[in-house]
Design a protein that fits this description.
This protein is α/β, with parallel strands linked by helices. The chain has ten helices and seven strands. It has two domains: 4-150, 2-enoyl-CoA Hydratase, Chain A, domain 1; 153-201, Lyase 2-enoyl-coa Hydratase, Chain  A, domain 2 (Orthogonal Bundle). α8 runs antiparallel to α9 (173-188). The longest helix has 20 residues, at 27-46.
Length: 213
């Protein structure tokens, strides 16, 4: 796998937890569900390969946090995002208190978390949470085009760049430069670099090998 797309199977991306279902659950069942949710989000965050969200409708609560946990978000023009947890007495627990201040401004993040108001795809794009808006009927075609473009790049270089971005967030500049150089040299010394340069000079598509892990 060179790139993954996370999207909703139906008309919406993900509406979050089913509170009616939780009403009938005991504390052990709720804890088991919470742990499964946390493992899923951890898997998304820790993936070395590129993964992005194609949000095709409503993304609420944990559903919005699924999208936030990916490398970036594209969205249909009719999509929306919402963190309504505080309205039912819960603090958001899937990572939005960390992701939103970095994807938006701290003030916009606090507004979302405190009011629970939905944010349209247009506003999310304007604020930087979404990187591309798409007509609803074209969302997956555009997502596949993006994935194919990413898949043509060196997988080791992509993994190194992804790691550098994630580890460099919030650290002092010179520390960030060290992380940047470590990822750079990891790719420079890899066989993919020789293949990439050779393919460029021969005006052909490079034949990158999949990483061992």
């Amino acid at each position: 796998m060179r790139c993954a797309i996370l999207t909703g199977a139906g008309q919406d991306f993900c509406r979050g937890a089913d509170l009616r279902e939780r009403k009938a659950m005991d504390s052990e069942q709720r804890l088991r569900q919470r742990r499964a949710f946390d493992r899923t989000l951890y898997t998304l965050r820790s993936m070395r390969r590129p993964i992005f969200a194609a949000v095709n409708g409503i993304a609420v609560g944990g559903g919005s946090e699924f999208a936030q946990s990916c490398d970036f978000i594209i969205a249909a023009e009719n999509a929306s995002f919402c963190q309504p947890e505080a309205l039912v007495g819960i603090s958001a627990g899937g990572g939005s208190t960390w992701f939103l201040p970095r994807q938006l401004s701290p003030g916009h993040a606090m507004y979302q978390l405190m009011t629970g108001e939905p944010v349209s795809a247009q506003d999310a794009y304007r604020m930087g949470m979404v990187v591309r808006l798409c007509p609803p009927a074209e969302l997956m075609n555009i997502a596949l085009e993006i994935a194919e473009k990413i898949a043509r790049s060196g997988p080791t270089a992509l993994a190194a760049a992804k790691l550098a971005v994630r580890e460099g967030l919030g650290v002092p500049m010179e520390h960030g430069m060290i992380i940047n150089l470590e990822s750079h040299w990891r790719s420079v010394l890899h066989p993919d670099r020789a293949e990439g340069v050779k393919a460029w000079n021969e005006m052909r598509e490079p034949n990158f090998k999949d990483p061992d892990r």
